[in-house]
TrEMBL record:
SUPFAM superfamilies xref list: alpha-helical ferredoxin, Nucleotide-binding domain
Transmembrane feature ranges: none
Name under which the protein is recorded: NADPH-dependent glutamate synthase beta chain and related oxidoreductase
Residues in 4Fe-4S ferredoxin-type domain copies: 493-522, 523-552
Presence of keyword Iron: yes
Organism: Candidatus Scalindua japonica
Gene Ontology molecular function terms on file: iron-sulfur cluster binding; metal ion binding; oxidoreductase activity
Keywords: Iron, Iron-sulfur, Metal-binding, Oxidoreductase
Pfam families named among the record's database cross-references: Fer4_20, Fer4_9, FlpD, Pyr_redox_2
Amino acid sequence: MIDVFGDKSKINRYIVDEEAPCIVACPIRQDARDYIQLIARGRFSEAIQVVAERNALPSACGRICTHPCETECRRNVIDKPIAIAWLKRFLADGFLNDKTKGIERQAEIKYSERIAIIGAGPAGLAAAKDLALLGYQCTIFEAHSGPGGMLRMGVPTYRLPREFLDKDIGLIADLGVEIKYNMTVGEDISFDDLKNDFAITFLAVGLPITRRLPIEGTDLDGVQDAISFLKSANCHHSAKVGNSVLVIGGGAVAMDCARTALRLGPKEVNIVCLEHRNEMPTSDYEIEETLQEKAILHTSVGPKRIIGEGGKVAGLETLKVKSVFDSEGRFNPSFHQGSESIINADTIILAIGQASDLSFLEGHEEIGVTGGGTIAAEADTLSTGMPGVFAGGDVVLGRGTLTMGLGHGKKAALSIHNYLRKTSRTDHKFRDVKPIDELSKTETRVEKIKTEERDEMPVLDPNTRTGNWDEVELGFTEEIAVREAMRCMNCGNGATVSSELCIACLTCVRVCPFEIPKIKEDENFAHIGNDCQSCGMCVVECPAKAIEFKGQYEDMGKDQLNDAFKEAKTSEPLIINFYCSYNLDLALSKEELPENIRQINLLSLGKLSPGLILDAFEKGADGVLITSCDDMCHFGDSCHAWAEQRAETAMDFLVSIGIEKERIKHHALPDQDGNGFLQTANQLIDEIKHL
């Protein structure tokens, strides 16, 4: 059963006041470390469970999330951030479906109170999912003919194919959430009717209106607003443009309008925005994608008037921007007078922001509305001034993101539950924590962290993709996903020392390849900081067994070893192969292995203990093959050396009890004779047959 408050059964004693910055930056507080560590181990089905516990729309989020987690990723100091969003997409595409283990089906209705949600966008869907799992019957009233809000109407299909959005929403509907379409509150049903028929109303109506420009010419034929244009393209396939298109705006919606227009066959698409390139309110990646498709960007330029001929658009007169913000940081553009110039266009699309439509709340002044046209809601509970009415998403945020909407939905669901049950339950993920300190380039331990190239997203050729509506980003393969996940430093989730067991012997200080453990002068036990890279050297070598990992998914190979012996016994000698996961060729070749070779992958052979090697023999192995990766290992040369030493320790013990030490073989790939893995494994098998 999914626990919408964070699955308390998995919370260990290492809840602290600091968290990895990727978690703190995430509006839904998704622990990216957990699912990335599972991807690195090839445990994809478990990884998508972790994602789905917090994220109501993982397929959509993996495609269009603005990923603030990556902006804050501590790997930025080393090379480039982990591709967190794209790894989420990898999981959602391949492993999220109605048969996924841990994904709830029809939810049990535990409470009599019925809940109305206005709007089937991210906030409304996230709230409905969590409330259904808590035991409430939810009905969503959606003004349009399909769910998703701006994800369906505004985001182009080449960024978010509808089958993936539908998959996400289908799993929410399967919980028992009812969605009523073509139901505009204030027209098809009144707000008072909802208040009378439902115990709670959650307002998640979004910002459905494009803001108008207060300049001359906006009423000319050929001027379109962004939302209507995108909706006609995405929902009705009826969008039309002329030969020369000009988009006014510098945000994500403006980029979507430009890229959509390019696919409709104009000769030219220009974009005009007030901001300098590095000030534009969208990601650099999205701007680059737009420019690759041959849109022309004019920065630091503002609209003065739209020029018309015979009642139709002919162009835009512009002014050069002096500044976008005033001395107090408020949006207040100023221009260089006398800097006018004209950009010709027969189609102009306004994408300068969105506004709310709260006409259905007329007469309900208890629900406060801000000067900016958003609903006033209490920050922590999202309650409004009217009892039983909550609000969230863009209609509260003003300008939010997909994940910010999802976060509001989660918070609203918990607040509604507490309101109805008169409880004060909390979601521990949303607790007030500060991010772990950034890595410093001046520290010597940072120099010891290996630089590893980030895998970028494979995409369609920019020269051909504007001729179709196919998805531009092609997704990660399994090999790319595993390799990228292995770059994660698992910040704050590494090893920790028990002060009660530690004997201050300095073993951890000596063996750590990153110089992390320290012993303070006034204390007699070691400290391992948040920069621990989880190599495992100290965990195995500590004579007092005072060190363990904080992360819940690090089993040091024990669970995998047990699973290896669940398979049927073979007539050939049974070989247990412990290998370093960073050797991808080996990690991804399981389907080519004979059934008598059972593999145990470890993220660093520093985690391989002599005891684990001997356990393999005790459980019935005929031989053990230990495979180190080459000098490209994430943890440097230390793993290879320690694995060799521990193999020798296990060999000595076998000899002491009358078992041939030749049953253990340690090698690196490729070995000194140039042999590959299977050649080496077969040599060991032949030797065992002659023992």
